[in-house]
Amino acid sequence: xxxxxxxxxxxxxxxxxxxxxxxxxxxxxxxxxxxxxxxxxxxxxxxxxxxxxxxxxxxxxxxxxxxxxxxxxxxxxxxxxxxxxxxxxxxxxxxxxxxxxxxxxxxxxxxxxxxxxxxxxxxxxxxxxxxxxxxxxxxxxxxxxxxxxxxxxxxxxxxxxxxxxxxxxxxxxxxxxxxxxxxxxxxxxxxxxxxxxxxxxxxxxxxxxxxxxxxxxxxxxxxxxxxxxxxxxxxxxxxxxxxxxxxxxxxxxxxxxxxxxxxxxxxxxxxxxxxxxxxxxxxxxxxxxx
Length: 290
Prior knowledge:
By secondary structure, this protein is α+β, with helices and mostly antiparallel strands. Helix content is 16%, strand content 59%. The chain has 2 domains: 1-48; 52-289. β9 (218-233) and β10 (236-247) form a beta hairpin.
């Protein structure tokens, strides 16, 4: 009988020891899991309460021209926009889901036009001359199509409304104004050089011509955008958004008659005019914020 009890004790002891070891390991695993959850919760709270984010941004967009009432020049399809720059988000301490989104961006834009009636301009070298300087011109060009290429520096100023973090994501909307200031403007024109008899029946391209004073130096547009932010590293996030901006200022300067460059001819009489148009934009933006 004693041998039987000893045998049972020796058989049960390893099981008890094993259960005890398993219980200790499980407690350690549970403790480690709770610690990880606590750290993740603190990290999420810290990210939610982060008041300033800054980083790199890029835009790809489409320009939609709204022609003016000249009835001489019309849009010629959809233009394009490419931007690179810096983005900055600043939220309020007592309301971390509300803030201001701004930054600085360099926009490289193309707008496309075509003439509805016979339109001409004079030029010397690669510079388009105004009415006042017409006597100094060396050639006359019959314009058919124009690609207007402009470089702007833009400073968006928008109200930011966003959710708290939902897992690794949060969502937002923006409303505000996009302020753009002209840096450079050139045109690529397609038509007929009527000065040169050998080219009067040929299609000619005038590339990188300058037309001083044609573009208005400031371009303002109001718009809405919406998107999502993905926190893929503890302090770094990837942001994607889409926005539509409605132009509230003219693209082209309404110049005095002496400074106008384009004209029509009726019975040998020139009538000068300025191009008129507004621009709307659909922009797709990608940013990396820190």
